[in-house]
Specification:
The protein is about 75% helix and about 0% strand. Helix 1 runs parallel beside helix 3. The protein has helices at about 10-35, 40-70, 80-100, 105. The chain contains four helices and no strands.
Length: about 110
C-alpha cells in the first residue's frame, strides 16, 4: 500500500462515516448477542470502550483532514473542498457515534 494512502482525500472524506457505521454494527450486534448470555453486564463496558475507540479514530482522521485542508493551496483544486467535507463529516460522525454509544450509560442495554 502506498505511504500516502491514509492521507488521500477519499480516505479522509469517508473515514468518519465508515467508522461510525462500523461502530453502530459492533455495538448493536454485541448487545444482541450478549444480552441473552451470562455476560450481559459486559454490554455497557464493551459499548463504552467501542465508543471511545471509534471517537478517537474519527477525531484522528478529522484532524488529518483539517491539516490537509489548511495545507492544500487554494488554486481551484477540488481536493481542498473535499478535505473540508471530510472535516465536516468527521464532526457529524462523532455526534452520531455519541448518539449510538451514550444511551448505554443511562439506559438498561438489555
Amino acid at each position: 500500500m502506498r505511504a500516502g494512502f491514509w492521507k488521500s482525500w477519499p480516505v479522509l472524506l469517508l473515514a468518519g462515516p465508515v467508522i461510525w457505521i462500523s461502530h453502530f454494527w459492533v455495538v448493536y450486534l454485541w448487545a444482541e448477542a450478549a444480552c441473552d448470555r451470562p455476560w450481559d453486564s459486559a454490554v455497557v463496558l464493551v459499548t463504552v470502550a467501542a465508543t471511545v475507540v471509534a471517537i478517537g479514530a474519527i477525531v484522528g482522521f478529522g484532524i488529518r483532514a483539517s491539516r490537509s485542508y489548511t495545507a492544500a493551496d487554494d488554486d481551484g483544486d477540488h481536493r481542498r473542498l473535499l478535505y473540508l467535507y471530510g472535516v465536516l463529516l468527521a464532526g457529524l460522525s462523532v455526534v452520531a457515534t455519541l448518539f449510538v454509544g451514550l444511551p448505554a450509560l443511562f439506559l438498561d442495554p438489555c
